[in-house]
Amino acid sequence: MTVTLISSASKEVRIGYDLPFVIIGERINPTGRKILAEEMKQGDYSRVESDALAQVAAGAQMLDVNAGIPLADEPAILAEAIRVVQAATDVPLSIDSSIVAALEAGLSVYEGKALVNSVTGEEERLEQVLPLVAQHGAAVVAISNDETGISEDPDVRFEVAKKIVERAADYGIPRCDVVVDPLVMPIGAINSSGKQVMHLVRRLREELKVNTTCGASNVSFGLPNRNGINSAFLTMAIAAGMTSAITSPLHAEVMQAVLGANVMMGNDPHCANWIRKYREPAAEGEEPGRGRRSRRRRNI
Amino acid sequence: MTVTLISSASKEVRIGYDLPFVIIGERINPTGRKILAEEMKQGDYSRVESDALAQVAAGAQMLDVNAGIPLADEPAILAEAIRVVQAATDVPLSIDSSIVAALEAGLSVYEGKALVNSVTGEEERLEQVLPLVAQHGAAVVAISNDETGISEDPDVRFEVAKKIVERAADYGIPRCDVVVDPLVMPIGAINSSGKQVMHLVRRLREELKVNTTCGASNVSFGLPNRNGINSAFLTMAIAAGMTSAITSPLHAEVMQAVLGANVMMGNDPHCANWIRKYREPAAEGEEPGRGRRSRRRRNI
């Protein structure tokens, strides 16, 4: 079994086929969050800290940290955000940037073994990112596109992933430290993208023997009731062998889908996590349906 | 592709791999429903009728009708219930009994091509039920247990299903008219039962090339938040190739899982059903989470 070990100064997270699915919280990302972007730019990391705490409380085992703000000093901001998050929580982090200098700055302040997010199959990225990953003994997210873009053919994306795994090995990075993102297309635009991803995840697991991750919410782009689609996607992806996702743990419905999938895959021994979470009526507001039902019961 | 065609006097339902998943409403069943049992025994079918209408309104494409009441004239009651349901709705029916005379009485009044629920791999049942199915040109649910009980080994259950398909062929019943129930064990008791069923469903589809159904709610027996587990189970079973289930369409969460699974499998062209269902804010009470959110938004 391929196990990817990621750590903070005091905590380890293991990503693997026969282990509970790993949720990497996606919220600390200024893309599309104007207020957060402005605050981070001004050196105010209070929302970064509260987002970190809220996601861990909601069940994220890891957090993704991104500081992609136009016209800002991304390396410095990413490094500071990582310092803040590591001071506030003990979960391992994914260091997320498209700028190599920012990944480098993040890695230089990170305590533990980080997940670097990400490298693609593009030659220039491979040559810049992989030495950095190797030097810091980190793991890396490998996105299955290259200079030719994102192929609609999942078997072409498999070949890109395979190339990245081979190139990583040349730098001394073992395949257990390459977590492949198969790339999930919006199913509203490409109706076959669900089946494509399941086919690709199964090949990545059975043939390339790597762990996998994805930005899960992309699948529902443009559709109503996105959490419903995201839940169906994650459940099926886990059945196909997906082992982690970068998504928001703050949606109770999505978290329930992941916990239910852990039960169905036999990765929640004695259903202990499920029973602990759902045995008692939920706290007010956390799960409206259940709360309402139990109130009604008391009134009768 | 194997397609199972079931019909009423005026409507056809097709069960198949590349078609939307078929929900067979389970509610018309007096087991564990004292009031319904008493009413049916007294000749009052008003609840049978309203249960039929409610399930069709909630999205059931077929209805299961069961009249298993201790010390009652089950053949007569089942026949009458079928008459009532066929008068009230136009969906095809599954005629459900463990008593052969009741199946016979149900078939004799049924208009269309019914689904007979069920035959097992037990010699006596095969010899009694299959001629009846052949005589009426019906389809049949084949439950994968035999005289030795229900094996925990899915490959043994596969062999039982194979035997039933072969015996059905001897009676002139084609494999497209045998819908196999792989038997779903409570996952709270047998933690591996989810993986077992997925393995078995995949073999039934790829090797035996039959359609499948199951009593979906059995999987969550004994656990809290049963709809959450049932949703995870159905989503994964559909990904593995399950093509129908006998379950309650009255749980919005379970129906959402099935509709989401149809989208993910590419069996909801242009996501049209999904968009139609979830485009507008849900009616009050139907989906508490969504309703509450939209109210809050209006208040801001």
Assign a percent range to the helix content of chain A.
40-55%
Give the overall form of chain A.
Answer: globular
* Strand line-up across the major sheet of chain A: 9-8-7-6-5-4-3-10
**Uncertain segments of chain A of ≥5 residues (pLDDT<50)?**
287-300
Assembly level = homodimer
How far apart are the first and last residues' alpha carbons of chain A, in Å? Answer: 52 Å
Structural domains of chain A: how many: 1
Structure characterization notes:
2 copies of one chain form a homodimer. Chain A starts with a strand and ends with a helix. In chain A, helix 3 (74-88) links the parallel strand 4 and strand 5 (93-96). With 300 residues, chain A is α/β, with parallel strands linked by helices. In chain A, the strands form 2 sheets. An 8-stranded parallel sheet of chain A has the order 9-8-7-6-5-4-3-10. A two-stranded antiparallel sheet of chain A has the order 1-2. Chain A contains 11 helices and 10 strands. Chain A binds chain B through residues 187-188, 191-192, 194-195, 198, 223-225, 228-229, 231-233, 235-236, 238-240, 252-253, 256-257, 259-261, 263-266, 268-271, 274-275, 277-279, 288-290, 292, and chain B through 187-188, 191-192, 194-195, 198, 223-225, 228-229, 231-233, 235-236, 238-240, 256-257, 259-261, 263-266, 268-271, 274-275, 278-279, 288-290, 292.
